[in-house]
From TrEMBL:
The keyword Chaperone does not apply. It comes from the Eukaryota. It is a multi-pass membrane protein. Residues 22-92 form the NXPE C-terminal domain. This is CAS1 domain-containing protein 1. InterPro entries: Cas1_AcylTrans_dom (IPR012419), NXPE4_C (IPR057106). It is found in: Membrane. It holds the Pfam family Cas1_AcylT. The keyword Transmembrane applies. GO terms for molecular function: N-acetylneuraminate 9-O-acetyltransferase activity. Belongs to the PC-esterase family. CASD1 subfamily.
Length: 756
């Protein structure tokens, strides 16, 4: 928007989200843990030099390394802190005035024989105001002294990170009589002098003293909570310490949710090749399109010179070849991927941290529910979980999940537990839908498998290449892909039992149940055998797909969290289709699913079960304990919803076309949100229009939904071209795809080697 350095913004501007969460202008601030702070400051020496306000900042800083540190010792003397395990040394040097003593100390660091601190944080002024009773002579002397110190600090800035902390405002009503001369007017004069003098001799140099002025903004909001009107409350100085840690450590640790002070990552070899491919696709499409259009214009109208009559050509529209369709799709995809890269890898657009409030989550939920009810239409068929109904189900769940992500509602445990049920419901539909298809159609051909795998994975594979992210990062797609293959293997392995075969002999039903029991046993065994599970997915090349941050723990956690729900979906589909075949349920328009009495009893049980689960989820106190119970109990609310939605005939006969539209592109919405709606790989929010949060959300949402819809169309078009029905052609394509992934693995290995 305005360009500039995000480090400069972090040090100079921002605002509070709520009471305690600081949001720097244009970038995201990472909250460093003790272990991260120690790793960043390994073998480092940090020096704080100044007055009691700098001492406060010193204590907040070392508490990031060791929270057990207590503020004790000589307040008007030097304080030393050392962490021998990480070879970190942090010193506080008591120099309350900018004078000859401070200059001498700083000068000693500039000598070649002396080890220089890696980070120097300095600042002082209030003592000068207090001792000299706020006289103008003191300000003049301050200017002289800081003019003498400035060249030394600038020299140190060539090899160390040097920060000058401007003076925070005071709350004059709370100041003691001995400090009444410290006024905000005086503080502003001292700050103005410091800013004007520092870096005056090195304005065009990269080595500069960094002016830490953001503390002033923080103090303006919080100084009234000060105990004495002079020193900041603890929460404010902790924020200052965290800003300081972000300024220095973000470029070293490169946290995903710490975009401040992070340089744009260099393009990898794979990204460069992808850029070349999309560029060639765009050029190729433009050339073919121009040639076709030129030929079409020549043939559009030809006049018979003898008769003077105009003849119409045999074809009224230009013939679009398969190659042109292919290049057209890749051309659009290339432009879309450019937008993805600019949003979440280039430092072109701003990013901000999430901040949760109940209103930011629940008000949008009410909006979309009202819209969904407004667009109610009759279904084409009235079967249980018909296509319109499942699209509607996916749609409203996806919209709720999107609101959950952008509002940062994961910090509120009851909402988190209900969202976990929605994710489980997606997997329930996976089990239900794929089981129903194989059971009814009996189609275990390679074409069906390739079509499903292509539609599920195409976008994610492209994003892995363009955004330089591992496959497991987009965890939901690996999850549904693996479960699809498990469902396929369960039903395709001998004996293949389908409805047509089972109708001839009821014993086949028991055979299928036996298969499902074997599947459940395997799931149960793997869920309590983490070592076996990790060994299976640690074999190359599976490890390349399922590793995240060097191990497969994240994949194990995601799989275990909803390990039974796909099985429940398959079992529900089996029972429902068996009842349907024996005409034990009524699916006519407006008819209840069962007899009135049975329907009423089941509805009552379903409503009670649904509410009971919600009450349990809302009373959760510990995320870990609730996650342990979730795999076994989430099906309660899912089945309750399915029965409530389908038992009454009038409810089963209508659906929301609004939700169904979003349901058809739910997978694309889920994946695209990572980079072009949220930011920093879902950790923050993309800011296209700074200063207008609501307008920004409207604009970014409109673009995001349009892009998701377009990618859905591109995926469908490419699936028809790249996954043909002819088996011999399909086999050739599979060999080409195998070659592509082999090359991708080779280039990936080369990248990893160059990084190490």
């Amino acid at each position: 928007f305005k360009g500039g350095d995000t480090c400069e913004y972090l040090l100079s501007s921002g605002r509070f989200l709520g009471e305690k969460v600081w949001q720097p202008h244009s970038c995201m601030m990472h909250k460093y843990k003790n272990s991260e702070a120690k790793n960043c400051l390994l073998d480092r020496h940090v020096a704080f030099i100044g007055d009691s306000r700098i001492r406060q900042l010193f204590y907040s800083f070392i508490k990031l390394l060791n929270p057990q540190v207590k503020e004790e010792g000589n307040k008007h003397g030097n304080i030393l802190f050392e962490d021998k395990s990480a070879s970190i040394r942090v010193d506080f040097l008591w120099y309350p005035e900018v004078n000859g003593s401070m200059r001498q100390r700083i000068k000693s660091w500039t000598e070649d024989s002396v080890a220089k601190p890696h980070i120097i944080v300095a600042g002082a002024a209030t003592w000068s105001i207090k001792i000299h009773n706020g006289s103008n002579e003191a300000l003049t002397q301050y200017k002289i002294n800081i003019t003498a110190i400035a060249p030394l600090l600038e020299k140190l800035a060539k090899s160390s990170d040097v920060y000058w902390v401007l003076q925070d405002p005071v709350y004059e009503d709370l100041l003691s009589e001995s400090r009444k001369m410290i006024t905000n007017e005086k503080i502003d004069a001292y700050n103005e002098a410091a800013v004007r003098i520092l870096n005056s001799s090195s304005r065009n140099s990269k080595a500069k003293v960094k002016v830490f002025s953001v503390s002033k903004l923080i103090a303006q909001e919080t100084i009234m909570k000060s105990a004495d009107g002079l020193h900041l409350p603890e929460s404010s100085r902790d924020t200052n310490a965290m800003i300081l840690m972000n300024v220095y450590c973000n470029k070293i640790m490169k946290p995903i949710d710490g975009s401040c002070c992070q340089p744009q990552p260099p393009l990898t070899l794979i990204q460069k090749l992808a850029f070349c491919f999309f560029t060639l696709s765009i050029i190729g499409y433009l050339i073919i399109s121009l040639v076709h259009r030129n030929n079409y214009r020549k043939n559009k109208s030809c006049t018979d010179l003898e008769s003077g009559e105009e003849k119409k050509p045999a074809v009224n529209t230009p013939n679009v070849s398969t190659l042109e369709m292919l290049l057209h799709s890749f051309c659009k995809l290339g432009l879309i991927m450019t937008y993805f890269y600019l949003c979440d890898r280039a430092n072109l657009f701003m990013k901000e941290n999430k901040f949760y409030t109940h209103s930011s989550f629940f008000i949008p939920i009410v909006y979309i529910l009202v819209l969904g009810v407004f667009y109610t239409e009759n279904t084409k068929e009235t079967k249980v979980l018909n296509r319109e109904q499942t699209d509607e189900w996916k749609g409203w769940m996806q919209l709720v999940i999107l609101i959950y992500h952008i509002s940062g509602a994961s910090t509120f445990l009851p909402v988190y537990m209900h969202i976990r049920v929605l994710v489980a419901a997606y997997l329930f539909q996976t089990g239900y839908g794929h089981f129903s298809y194989f059971w009814l159609k009996g189609d275990f051909g390679v074409y069906r498998v390739c079509q499903v795998l292509f539609r599920l994975n195409f976008l994610v594979v492209v994003l892995c290449i363009v955004m330089d992210r591992p496959y497991q990062f987009y965890y939901f797609v690996p999850l549904v892909t693996v479960w699809f293959m498990i469902i396929y293997a369960t039903l395709a392995i001998w004996p293949q039992i389908v409805q047509k075969k089972a109708n001839g002999n009821c014993l086949w039903h028991f055979g299928l149940l036996l298969k499902l029991i074997c599947l459940l046993t395997c799931i149960y065994f793997l869920s309590y055998s983490q070592g076996v599970f990790e060994k299976i997915f640690s074999f190359w090349p599976l490890s390349k797909c399922f590793e995240l941050n060097g191990n497969v723990y994240e994949w194990w956690f995601r799989w275990k969290l909803d390990r039974y729900v796909v099985f429940y979906g398959m079992l529900f589909a089996f029972i429902y289709l068996a009842l349907q075949k024996r005409q034990m349920i009524s699916e006519g328009k407006g008819d209840p699913l069962f007899s009135n009495r049975v329907s009423n009893i089941l509805l009552f049980i379903s409503v009670v079960s649904f509410l009971t689960y919600s009450i349990w989820a809302s009373s959760c106190k510990n995320k870990t304990e609730c996650n342990e119970l979730h795999p076994s109990v989430s099906v309660v609310q899912i089945l309750a919803f399915v029965l409530i939605r389908n038992i009454p005939g009038y409810v089963r006969s209508v659906y929301s076309s609004f939700f169904a539209w979003f349901g058809k592109i739910s997978l694309e919405l889920f994946i695209c949100q990572y980079h072009i709606w949220l930011a920093a790989d879902t950790k923050g929010i993309l800011v296209l229009i700074p200063g207008y949060p609501m307008f920004n959300v409207l604009v970014s949402t409109f673009i995001f939904v349009c892009v998701a819809h377009e990618i859905s169309q591109i995926t469908n078009d490419l699936a028809q071209i790249l996954v043909p029905k002819d088996n011999s052609t399909l086999l050739k394509r599979l060999l080409c795809i195998a070659g592509f992934f082999s090359g991708l693995l080779l280039f990936s290995a080369m990248q990893d080697q160059s990084r190490h």
